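Side project, low priority. Logging it here so it doesn't get lost.
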Amino acid sequence: MLSLVNAAAAISSLDPAAVRAAADYSARHRGVSFLAIQDGRTLLERNSKTAHKIYSGTKAFWDLAALAAAEDGLLRLDERVADTITSWSDPRKVQVTIRQLLDFDSGLEPEFFLHETQSGDRDATAIRGRMAAEPGSAFIYGPAALQVFHRVLKEKLRGDSPTHYLERRVLHRLGLGSQRYLDDRAGNPLLATGWILTARQWAKLGHLVLANGAPVISRNSLEQCWRGTTANRAFSLGWWNNRAAPNGREFDFEQMLIPKWQNQDWHDGCLYHDAPNDLVACIGSEGQRLYVIPSLQLIVVRQANGGSFTDTDFLRLLLGRERR
């Protein structure tokens, strides 16, 4: 991943005034907490011990469980889902791999109604969902694909629950406990969203990135999160990346997710031109962000209640860049 760093953009340490400017910008745009840690040292901390919804930040933790399961020999990310979900006999469904479920390029309809807390059986509904595109051809962000993965992992565990596996294999190693799973009536957790963490707790995921996956997975496993896909070069396994910088097409990723998937354009997307291109981020609705820049040994958490926040403006202030 370090080979991706844009040397011209890299800086050794952040300017304290720039960090304060970014925190102030966050607060003006309905930010509720802020935490910046560089090289193990806290640069600035505001309300970082108050728990807050992280929305889609939840996804990356379940993706860690998938990577751990692959390391444990429970599954292969590139195996066909239909080898486990035998009802998937549709010609397009039989081509779908576990990795495509996690990267949201399986072609499965998003089925956002699965977010509802009173769902009867999310997994069964997602498995019956229709294919909207050829596998690998389109980025379709939504809960259905992850619920299919939940059923696959449940079958692979042969009696253990995915939630227990997640807690034992991932969360306990990170120093985290059980979470807000939003179980449906059949007992299936919602994998796409739902967790509530403090900024300090969410930052533990950032520390894992800086430690190359330790103490949960190996460096080789973690690096799969930065690959991107043909359908969306800027996303893999719960993480958004800035690989297309400095020449990529800069736009607001959270805003791009609002239109229907057919109207989204992810071609050569980047978070911010002038940020190092090893920047990666977990992005949650209403302005939730976990940023990690390994070349700067930097972790930044920003939590909010909506507002007109943009990654470009925030990162420009944080990194002390002049407006173009």
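Brief comment: The two ends are 27 Å apart (CA to CA).
Revisit when time allows.
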